[in-house]
Fold Pimeloyl-ACP methyl ester carboxylesterase.
Amino acid sequence: MAFQHLLGGVAVAATMLVMGAAAAADAPKTSKTFSSVVEGTEAPAVVIFIPGLSAPGEVWDGAVAHLKGRAQTHVLTLAGAANQAAWQSDASHDSFTRTVEDQLADYIRVKGLVRPMIVGHSIGANIALEFAERYPDLVGKLVLVDALPFQARVWFNIDSVTLAKPLATATRLSIKYQSRARYEKFIRGPSTRSQVASDADFEKVVRWGLAADQSAVADTMYEVLTTDLRPQLGAFAAPTLVVETWAGTEGATRDQIEQEFHAQYAGLRRVKFAMSETGHHFVMLDEPDWFNRQIDQSLSDDTAAR
């Protein structure tokens, strides 16, 4: 079983090990893992939005507009996306995703945010989920959009981090060291096209993909593909909504996808699921009204249950 759209606009099969003639050019680096844009001041709720790996915070524009006056929103853009400088690791911080989580914890504390709802898409959802596992007291609610706790299980059809590592390494190298021309051709290809319904949104997602740092994409994908978040799902009790999609997916039926989501998230204490019937991976673009209803329900629902 493989539904590789789950990693967003950067999905690359591990078998795509075709090296280009030149490595990606070195890009500026930063110790910051994200930038943020805040909308609203005094509001009854606080929502933090985390996009996927290549997408800018712009991907959440529809949801932010929908929440105007009802929630203060904090929209993140990850380092390396939207032509921002990529993150620079150091001796004490060698994991991008975990450093995002640590810096997000500092951000929440410094700004005095009280148990905000965190909404993450794709790799942004993996970050949100691991953040809740590591910092359960800082999270009020979670909305996880089209992501799984162990992505490698559906990518490689294996259920072990140990077995995933060589395949994830191949994936990382195939992205990181292929020529820019090959990379751009992939970004414009059928994998990206399968993630949105309209041609206009496809062009938007392509633009986002081309504005992302190629090396940062490769490194972060490796992290996600070699991380299994299932064992710690019981570490937090925040009500969680898992948004599923199946349109545009090859190699699996709707029922198979639903079963995989339910099985992987079985360890959550308070969870409910919402399957989009027509939305693709970027469901917030394809079905904005439906997606916004899920956000509304999560904000008002204090009793998430399976």
